[in-house]
Amino acid sequence: MSSELVLWPDPRLKEACEEVPKGMDCNEIIDAMLRVKEEHRGLGIAAPQIGEMLRIIIVEDLIMINPTIKNASSQMRWVWEGCLSFPETCPKYAQDMSKLRDGDTVRVRRHKRVAMRAFDRNWEKLSVKGSDWKGACMQHELEHLNGITLADHRRR
């Protein structure tokens, strides 16, 4: 089990992830994700960012296995995002978000609010709502599971 952060342009970050088989023990993967997220001072992380091509994300301390968006507001907003897999946008390297230079983060259009369904690490059903930065983070991490990265948003 790798606890190394996968960095762009590693091709795994462009791959769509497999659904986690129901009941699979994901604790080792989840623990590795939590370690890497904390080590790099991230708000969220997706399994492909540690080289695991499974549909698992973590936003703050909320673990979501096989997440799907069940509802998204029609209202959109622009947000500035960074990503652990793009070190130039990572707070660990900048030491302080206020010291990031122009161009270090990427402007991304996100739904203002989202509601997601998923399973927790014990395979209990979850229904989660997110708005503002948490909703944006949920959408960002879900995109990782579909092989979409900040590099794709930079091109838009």
Task: Give a concise summary.
The chain has 156 residues and is α+β, with helices and mostly antiparallel strands.
Layout of helices and strands, plus pairs?
Layout: H1 27-39, E1 44-46, E2 56-59, E3 62-72, E4 76-81, H2 91-94, E5 106-111, E6 113-119, E7 125-131, H3 132-145, H4 150-154
Antiparallel strand pairs: 1-2, 2-3, 3-6, 4-5, 6-7
CATH class: Alpha Beta
Helix content: 10-25%
* Tally of individual helices: 4
Low-confidence stretches: 93-102
What is the CA–CA distance across the termini?
35 Å
Mean pLDDT: 90
Number of structurally distinct domains: 1
Radius of gyration: 15 Å
- CATH topology, which one? Peptide Deformylase
Taken from the alpha-carbon principal axes, the silhouette is: globular
How would you name the CATH homologous superfamily?
Answer: Peptide deformylase
Assembly state of the chains shown: single chain
For the biggest β-sheet, the strand order reads 1-2-3-6-7
- Along the chain, the helix and strand elements come as HEEEEHEEEHH
Q: What would you note in describing this structure?
A:
The chain is α+β, with helices and mostly antiparallel strands. The protein has one domain (11-154): Peptide deformylase (Peptide Deformylase). Helix content is 23%, strand content 28%. The protein has helices at residues 27-39, 91-94, 132-145, 150-154, and strands spanning 44-46, 56-59, 62-72, 76-81, 106-111, 113-119, 125-131. The strands form 2 sheets. A 5-stranded antiparallel sheet has the order 1-2-3-6-7, sandwiched between helices. The protein has a two-stranded antiparallel sheet with strand order 4-5. A hairpin with a 5-residue loop joins β6 (113-119) and β7 (125-131).
